[in-house]
Amino acid sequence: MTKQHWVISDLHLGHSNVLAFTRSDGSKLRDFQSIEEHDETIVDNWNKVVREHDRVYLLGDAVMPAASIPTLGRLNGSIVLVMGNHDHRHKNKKYEPFIKQFRGSSQWYAGPGRNWIMTHIPVHPMCLSERFRGNIHGHTHSNHLTQRWMDENEESYESKDRRYVNVSAEEVGYTPVSVEEITRC
Question: What is the DSSP string of 132-157?
């Protein structure tokens, strides 16, 4: 059986305040009745796609508070945690039974000239020119990076920057997504 590689970010397991976050239009970012329902949805969705021998790149903000760290033990696969701004170093000892590796970033080789960098916080666009085709990231939740363009009439407009793939939990249906699929383009 072939090992698959998955990616997701910003689980915020146990973080009841995440249920109060809103989008720019005022709608709820995560529409759950309780943090228990939120966490169970993530665990169920994760385990529906990830098998025991698969690898998952968790791009930061895994658990808040530390008392919820054991929830990671219910997730299939081996987890590589790319540290986020809420993954404090003092938690590492508590994370160790559930996390295979800790990283600041991770690189994904998808073929010649098609390297991707996986981070919690998006990297600066200048980092994507020659070395990396794109950036798989989290942190921005429902917000996406944009690019400003100029058309032939010299009118500017903005569009989603396709070099960036946001895998915050709410953007991927609270389910890890295939790294191979993301980087196939």
Answer: -SEEEE-SSTT---EEEEE-TTS-EE
CATH number of 5-182: 3.60.21.10
pTM over 0.85: yes
Which residues lie below 8 Å from residue 135, measured CB to CB, with a gap of 6+? 116, 117, 118, 119, 122, 123, 127, 128, 163, 164, 165
Six token digits for residue 140: 């921005």
Q: Which amino acid is at 64?
A: M
What tokens does 105 get?
Answer: 């970033």
Amino acid at 97: P
What is the distance between the alpha carbons of residues 169 and 144, in angstroms, rounded to a whole number? Answer: 14
pLDDT tens, residue by residue, 119-170 = 999 998 888 877 788 999 999 999 887 777 667 777 777 778 889 999 999 9
Q: Where are the domains of the chain?
A: 5-182
SS3 state at 87: coil
